[in-house]
From TrEMBL:
InterPro entries: Bact_transf, EPS_sugar_tfrase, Undecaprenyl-P_gluc_Ptfrase
EC number: 2.7.8.31
Keyword Lipoprotein annotated: no
Record keywords: Membrane, Transferase, Transmembrane, Transmembrane helix
Top-rank lineage group of the source organism: Bacteria
Name of the featured protein: Undecaprenyl-phosphate glucose phosphotransferase
Any Pfam family hit: Bac_transf
């Protein structure tokens, strides 16, 4: 389910582009020739992205204070100034008067700062006066801190939190009724006062949030939830704990992951599928009648359905969307057996990656009928849908690919998938890609 107010996925990339456009536009005052102008623009672009990632320059949220934005801008300006002066130190023949460099930096950061502040204030005004860009919330608990949080939401409409209801919690409170209310009212975020919840209630709420794609945050005390990987934030002066922080929620990480996806998918489509597809098509057609490609509905990001593409490896049959392939499956053709053993049948999914339905690396998507069953019976299965599904994944290179023979197979897959989405890095994706290629060349035991 898409969340209300999840605007940052659009705002942050736009902010990056506008800021870089300002820096590049004002660099024309240095009167470089074309070659040096391109070199300078590439240099400041790369350095700006790296520096802003390191400092968290774009990590500005609805609850971020104005003084924090000013502090971030000053830090970014000082370090970026050193970077620009370093360029002229490296290319001594291009040296410019310090006054011109300071003028460039002053003009650029004045406009960048003005844009950043204006955008932040505009969004606050938009939330307060028009009621847009909001998130529907509930608070579980009636402690002093939960009352303070309710007051914070009510007194600060510019932050865009619409508190629908506050629940009093007792040891005999029927949590299931609260869950029904959350689902019926399409609540986006759940805030819990941990001081009023026992461990069983906390675990029940965590499982509910995981299985229904709800953001869960805590007003902290000394409960054992601190043993989990948590994210600590402040709303005003109130400490708030998020159950998990997903690295790919960061705009920079989204950009890095999407860039890797586009590069790899274009590479496979242009250099492999362009000549391999006609050969595979001939072999498929020679052995059995039917389409060259097979498409099947799968569940992706936020549980949305999409068509997943593969080379057809089975004889056309009415059970293709119901039953997973198993060992010695009579539906699999001879060429299909080879394709599945080497994972060649998965290659058309690079078109899904290029379209944006999938990523190269991520939790493997299942047939819709299987997904519904797993969602109902396997704890935390829905957590995997916080990120895009992948052609390959950590679970697959760790020995959990192919047919699901027991509940333990899917439980282990889910554990690896959750570990992946909580600990994502570009290097981890690259490692999984290389391991997948190695496994495909060697052939895998459960690839049938």
């Amino acid at each position: 389910m898409a969340q209300s107010g999840r605007y940052s996925i659009f705002i942050r990339p736009l902010s990056y582009l506008i800021d870089l456009a300002i820096l590049i536009l004002f660099s024309s005052q240095f009167d470089f020739d074309l070659e040096m102008s391109l070199l300078f623009d590439v240099y400041i672009t790369m350095c700006w992205i790296i520096l802003s990632t390191y400092l968290g320059f774009y990590e500005v949220y609805r609850f971020t204070k104005l003084i924090k934005i000013i502090s971030l801008t000053l830090s970014q300006a000082l370090l970026f100034a050193l970077i620009v002066f370093s360029f002229f130190g490296i290319f001594y023949e291009l040296v410019r008067e310090p006054g011109r460099v300071f003028l460039y930096l002053s003009k650029s950061f004045a406009i960048i700062f003005l844009f950043k502040i204006s955008l932040h204030l505009f969004l606050k005004k938009y939330r307060k006066d028009l009621g847009g860009n909001f998130r529907r919330t509930v608070i579980l608990g009636n402690s002093t801190k939960s009352l303070q949080l309710k007051s914070f939401f009510d007194d600060n409409p510019e932050y865009g939190y619409n508190c629908i209801k506050e629940f009093k919690i007792r040891s005999n409170t029927n949590i299931e009724n609260i869950f029904k209310f959350i689902l019926q009212n399409e609540i986006d975020e759940i805030y819990c006062s941990m001081a009023e919840l026992n461990n069983d209630q906390i675990n029940a709420i965590i499982n509910f949030a995981d299985n229904n794609l709800k953001v869960l945050k805590f007003l902290p005390d000394n409960k054992d939830v601190f043993t989990r990987k948590l994210n600590f934030e402040y709303y005003g002066y109130l400490p708030i704990i998020s159950l998990r922080k997903i690295p790919t929620d960061s705009t920079v990480n989204q950009l890095l992951k999407r860039s890797l996806d586009i590069v790899l998918s274009l590479g496979v489509i242009i250099f492999i599928l362009s000549w391999l597809t006609p050969l595979i098509a001939i072999l498929i057609k020679l052995e059995s009648k039917g389409a060259v490609f097979f498409k099947q509905k799968r569940n992706g990001l936020d549980y949305k359905e999409f068509y997943c593409y593969k080379f057809r490896s089975m004889k056309p049959n009415p059970e293709a969307d119901l039953h997973q392939a198993n060992k010695n499956d009579q539906r699999i053709t001879k060429i299909g057996k080879f394709m599945r053993k080497t994972s060649i049948d998965e290659l058309p999914q690079f078109f899904n990656v290029l379209k944006g339905d999938m990523s190269v690396v991520g939790p493997r998507p299942h047939m819709v009928s299987h997904t519904h069953n797993f969602a109902e019976n396997i704890d935390k299965f829905m957590v995997r849908h916080f990120v895009k599904p992948g052609i390959t994944g950590l679970a697959q290179v760790s020995g959990y690919r192919g047919e699901i023979e027991t509940d333990q197979d899917i439980i282990n897959r889910v554990k690896f998938d959750i570990f992946y989405l909580e600990n994502w890095s570009l290097l981890l994706d690259i490692k999984i890609v290389f391991q997948t290629v190695i496994n495909a060349v060697k052939g895998e035991k459960k690839a049938y």
